[in-house]
Amino acid sequence: MAPDDAARSARRDPADQDSVERGTADEVTSKAVDRARAAIDRHVRLVDDFPSPGIAFKDLTPVLADPEGLSAIVTALTHGCRGIDLVAGIDARGFLLGGAVARELEVGVLAVRKAGKLPPPVHSTTYTLEYGTASLEIPADGLDLAGRRVLLVDDVLATGGTAVAAAKLLTDAGAEIVGVAVVMELAALGGRSTIADGLGPDIGVHAVTVD
Ligand SMILES: O=P(O)(O)OC[C@H]1O[C@H](OP(=O)(O)OP(=O)(O)O)[C@H](O)[C@@H]1O
Ligand SMILES: Nc1ncnc2[nH]cnc12
């Protein structure tokens, strides 16, 4: 996505003194990206052969537990999400990030959950990710997604299977996916092109850092 003033346009008066003192939204975001990358480099836990042999797992849990890391990442993730009215956080670290991003943008948040956690009825889909298959679900009742403009948020984009599956669940329920925002993109696994193939070339994919 192109740099923009998403967080500010979503909730702040561009002329307010606080924004002026902290610089333009682009400057704030660009500094946040630098801080976020530094926190990721400092705290990411690299675990070989998890959850299965041959997988180099990047665990962002300690990054999110760091106050500077969480703060910078949330600011950086709001970059480029103009005009959204719902954040969807993907199970499980996407819940933490999605809630914080939604609060920052003053919109609601929806948890896209792994199978078996939600009461029926649900919309469900099974998909393939880097290390196996899984199912995601959202409520099929009590939630009107028609016409909602949704930003998908997750910690890692690897093959893109998870993001495409979550997006399809939401679009089948009537929502429009406006963008996908992740902390870390594992570029070698081709998630960006899977998203373009599955959701169309116009879906913006914003990664705070690319590995
Ligand atoms: O791009 P993909 O190949 O689909 O992989 C990305 C997904 O993999 C991880 O989740 P995982 O399903 O391992 O669940 P977790 O959040 O519980 O660790 C990560 O949090 C993403 O959701
Ligand atoms: N290598 C990896 N590290 C962390 N999360 C992932 N999700 C899919 N592949 C992953």
TrEMBL record:
Keywords for this protein: Cytoplasm, Glycosyltransferase, Purine salvage, Transferase
GO terms under biological process: adenine salvage; AMP salvage; purine ribonucleoside salvage
MF (Gene Ontology): adenine binding; adenine phosphoribosyltransferase activity; AMP binding
**Which residue intervals make up region (Disordered)?**
1-28
Q: Which InterPro entries does the record match to this protein?
A: Ade_phspho_trans (IPR005764), PRTase-like (IPR029057), PRTase_dom (IPR000836), UPRTase/APRTase (IPR050054)
- Species this chain originates from: Gordonia soli NBRC 108243
Protein name, entry field: Adenine phosphoribosyltransferase
List GO terms (cellular component aspect).
cytoplasm
Which residues does the UniProt record annotate as the domain Phosphoribosyltransferase?
83-185
Query: Do you know which CDD domains this protein is assigned to?
Result: PRTases_typeI (cd06223)
Question: By which gene is this protein encoded?
Answer: apt
- Which Pfam families does the UniProt record give? Pribosyltran
